[in-house]
Amino acid sequence: MVRILVVDDNPKVRQYLRAVLEQQSAWHVCDEASTGGEALQRVQKAPPDVILLDFQMPDRNGLDVGHQISQLFPNIPILMVTIHFSRQLAEAARAAGIRGACAKSDVGSIVEAVDALLHEKTYFPAMNSANAVEWRN
Known about the structure:
Layout: E1 2-7, H1 11-21, E2 27-33, H2 36-45, E3 50-54, H3 62-72, E4 78-82, H4 87-95, E5 100-103, H5 107-118, E6 124-125, E7 133-134
Parallel strand pairs: 1-2, 1-3, 3-4, 4-5
Antiparallel strand pairs: 6-7
Helix pairs in contact: 2-3
């Protein structure tokens, strides 16, 4: 069973992401966090197999939190999910050690991205064509 930590300040978004992820029979949302600080505590207490991380949170942004987690736990893949998806954000996420980024609104991309990360790939949709995916090992 793949254990997933969902980090988002909005409880309805966490509930939505949990529902999307747990449609996959082998995936289980093992924990949730509503702030970056809480996410760091949860990862240190019980490291998950993969993390879905919001970009905008009340205490710190997802880039900073993702960078900290990737420094402490380089083997845990992180997917940044955001409503503010852009090429610049994807590039900043990659530079921070985050292995994927996608829009919260794109359910298919979320599932595809988590699957890619679990198979030791990265997931950054190409911005120049709709629905195109950039795969890097």
